[in-house]
Specification:
Blueprint lengths: L1 H18 L6 E9 L10 E5 L4 E4 L5 E6 L2 E8 L6 E7 L4 E3 L2 E3 L9
Parallel strand pairs: 1-7, 1-8
Antiparallel strand pairs: 1-4, 2-3, 2-5, 5-6
């Protein structure tokens, strides 16, 4: 009887693991700075577009971090007065991808 109960419990556990959608997540993080002085750009808009869409902003030190589902992503970074930056990459389960961004001043911005 104990063997049958153990076997049933093991089967349920294996089926739960096989059909579980709770795969390990990955992390995307980095620092956003300006190209001239390498000063941090706080408040930059960071969009992670891929297996899920996540929007975040950099902190006062230009840092951002987000936990994501594994998959292929495009990251778009923009901030007022700077040219936007885009790059694609893959995030594997449990992996941390560091994507530091150097933004150039957008000289095409016209003052009003």
């Amino acid at each position: 009887m104990k063997i049958a109960v153990f076997g049933l419990a093991l089967t349920v556990a294996l089926l739960h693991t096989a059909f579980s959608t709770d795969s390990p997540r990955g992390t995307v993080k980095g620092r956003v700075v300006d190209a001239f002085e390498h000063a941090p750009i706080g408040g930059a808009y960071v969009l992670l577009h891929g297996s899920e869409d996540i929007v975040t902003h950099t902190d006062a030190e230009g840092m951002y971090s987000s936990t994501v589902k594994p998959g292929i992503f495009d990251v778009f970074v923009s901030s007022v007065g700077f040219s936007p930056v885009c790059r694609g990459f893959r995030v594997e389960p449990g992996q941390t991808v560091v994507y530091d961004v150097t933004m150039k001043v957008n000289n095409d911005v016209q003052e009003q």
